[in-house]
């Protein structure tokens, strides 16, 4: 089995792949301890290798890799920044500064776009947009807060916006809110939709010959109607990880 990890700022997403690259198990954990525990269950198949992407600090990532190697006796391959991969060029002035999760969704998007320009939006805790032309030149991108961060900022910096976000998860209607929870949740959703619409408009301006729009991340479903023809691709980070980090026994 190959263990795949997407180490985000708040959570670690993991998957187990069979030799035939079939996903046999997945999970989401909030700490290294919880990850080790989840993978130490009696029914967990034997691990052969790990590949991972991390946007955490080098120290934190190194620590996790060492722990996995020590616990399961497996090599850990980490996706590292490169300036060019298979004709796709990182557009950052310093390519090492581009978040690795962004780079991986860019690689996955270019592959799916099959020669067309593309914009890929990853809607999670933070939201990122990246634009790539038909020649595979990454034009750069944008970062803004996602719904969880917008909600938290409002709660942190006001005195009278107080509610348990737990109760907000079902609140996705678009009529003007008549309670605080409705007003905030619907307002944040409009922010997200507005961002996505603006990215689409920008991509149309930049890529007159047409472009593909890809949506991924936990909140992709919420904005899919904003862009006609947008393709929701779950697990784009993992798709890119497989491209950037092929393993011998695959
Ligand atoms: N089952 C789920 N678990 C967690 N979040 C979910 C789920 N379904 C939808 N979401 C939404 O997805 C968003 C988080 O998306 P995602 O998991 O892509 O985050 P991320 O940015 O990768 O996280 P990290 O901060 O760990 O990098 C949240 O806004 C949450 O509302
Ligand atoms: C923007 C996030 C937090 C999204 O996960 C991540 O890609 C990151 O930490 N990026 C580094 C900064 C940058 O991409 O410019
Ligand atoms: K992410």
From TrEMBL:
<feature type="binding site">
    <location>
        <position position="92"/>
    </location>
    <ligand>
        <name>substrate</name>
    </ligand>
</feature>
<feature type="binding site">
    <location>
        <position position="125"/>
    </location>
    <ligand>
        <name>ATP</name>
    </ligand>
</feature>
<dbReference type="Pfam" id="PF03309">
    <property type="entry name" value="Pan_kinase"/>
</dbReference>
<comment type="pathway">
    <text>Cofactor biosynthesis; coenzyme A biosynthesis; CoA from (R)-pantothenate: step 1/5.</text>
</comment>
<feature type="binding site">
    <location>
        <begin position="99"/>
        <end position="102"/>
    </location>
    <ligand>
        <name>substrate</name>
    </ligand>
</feature>
<keyword id="KW-0418">Kinase</keyword>
<dbReference type="GO" id="GO:0004594">
    <property type="term" value="F:pantothenate kinase activity"/>
</dbReference>
<keyword id="KW-0630">Potassium</keyword>
<comment type="subunit">
    <text>Homodimer.</text>
</comment>
<keyword id="KW-0173">Coenzyme A biosynthesis</keyword>
<keyword id="KW-0963">Cytoplasm</keyword>
<keyword id="KW-0547">Nucleotide-binding</keyword>
<keyword id="KW-0067">ATP-binding</keyword>
<feature type="binding site">
    <location>
        <position position="180"/>
    </location>
    <ligand>
        <name>substrate</name>
    </ligand>
</feature>
<comment type="similarity">
    <text>Belongs to the type III pantothenate kinase family.</text>
</comment>
<feature type="binding site">
    <location>
        <position position="122"/>
    </location>
    <ligand>
        <name>K(+)</name>
    </ligand>
</feature>
<keyword id="KW-0808">Transferase</keyword>
<dbReference type="InterPro" id="IPR004619">
    <property type="entry name" value="Type_III_PanK"/>
</dbReference>
<feature type="binding site">
    <location>
        <begin position="6"/>
        <end position="13"/>
    </location>
    <ligand>
        <name>ATP</name>
    </ligand>
</feature>
<comment type="function">
    <text>Catalyzes the phosphorylation of pantothenate (Pan), the first step in CoA biosynthesis.</text>
</comment>
<feature type="active site" description="Proton acceptor">
    <location>
        <position position="101"/>
    </location>
</feature>
<keyword id="KW-0479">Metal-binding</keyword>
<protein>
    <recommendedName>
        <fullName>Type III pantothenate kinase</fullName>
        <ecNumber>2.7.1.33</ecNumber>
    </recommendedName>
</protein>
<dbReference type="InterPro" id="IPR043129">
    <property type="entry name" value="ATPase_NBD"/>
</dbReference>
